[in-house]
Please model this.
Amino acid sequence: MDLHFTEEQDKFRQEVIDFCKAERGDPSSFSRKLSEKGWPGLSIPKEYGGLGLGAIYRVIFMEEIAYWRAPVAPYDYGVTTSLLGNICLKYGSEEQKKEYLPKIARGKIFCGQGYSEPQAGNDLTMVQTRAVHQGDYYVINGQKMWVHDARTYKYTLLMACTNPDVAPEEGLSMFIVDNELPGVTVRPQLAMSGQLTPEVFLDDVKVPATYLLGEENRGWDYYLENKPFYWNKEQGAETGMMRRIFDDIVRYARETIKDGYPLNQNPMVRQKLAKMATDINALRFLMYRMAWMETQGLDLFHIASIARVFHVEAWVRFINTATQILGLGGQLQLREKHAPLRGIMETFYRQAALQLMQRAGPSYIKSIIATHELGLPEAW
Model:
């Protein structure tokens, strides 16, 4: 692996930085100009409307728009590309590729995941949502949870059972569901992080058969193969965000006086800052290594598992440490008077805690590593 960026990649990074600095402000204007550049489609092939520049450019883009706090959500681009974009490119019909990939490449549509259910979290073989083929349609009934963001996204990539008479892994299919179809009901649900993670109810929803993604009853295969991308859908954005928070914390420690001395002269604070910097650089290396491996066509499952575990655990450590450095004021909420760093750390603290408990959290991924990578027996 070459540990240096190419001259073209460095130029692209600077172009993204300059763009973020110049176009701060109105989110709709920023998104429109971003789409005009085609950056949402950096890794989508040119024949389907993308720029065909590959994974490293995509990660550079995600890292810098997160660092510069661009008025868009990196998650929107990451989840759409890692779900609908990747699976459609590999398994979608030619008509589906021509329909969806150019729109993704221009940032015209966003797609969330519709996998989880009340009884199907980590174990998606327990999916109960049912899709029955009737002529030119599938009639879908069921309930999905944590569908980000079904309120504003155009589509949901939905997993449903199409054959209940076989083993669960052999009877699941994926559908591209328009969230505005009759029978789709979205109910907002507030997570402890403050984020909306809606529930979606499907009551006799008629989905055209052309919305079946790939082959019927192959949904489980697509899900497994796409796990490395789904686990790391924010690839690049997490390091960009951590770099920005770290710079803010370093500035705070330099400017804050405690007991007559700048906080950054406290040996314990200096140790904590050093550990934060180490985690950022390690995670950044993992994300770019994964991107490089993707460009080489290598198997990503092992490194994606490691990267996911390290990402979540490093993020939790990072936010924990940042909150400690800020002191009691770090617990003040967003924009409260006297809150350091405008109170953003309290929000991040709740978000970090949630990541330990959600699907694809460290405990779940470690179990996969132990069983499938190290050959250890299944945990009871």
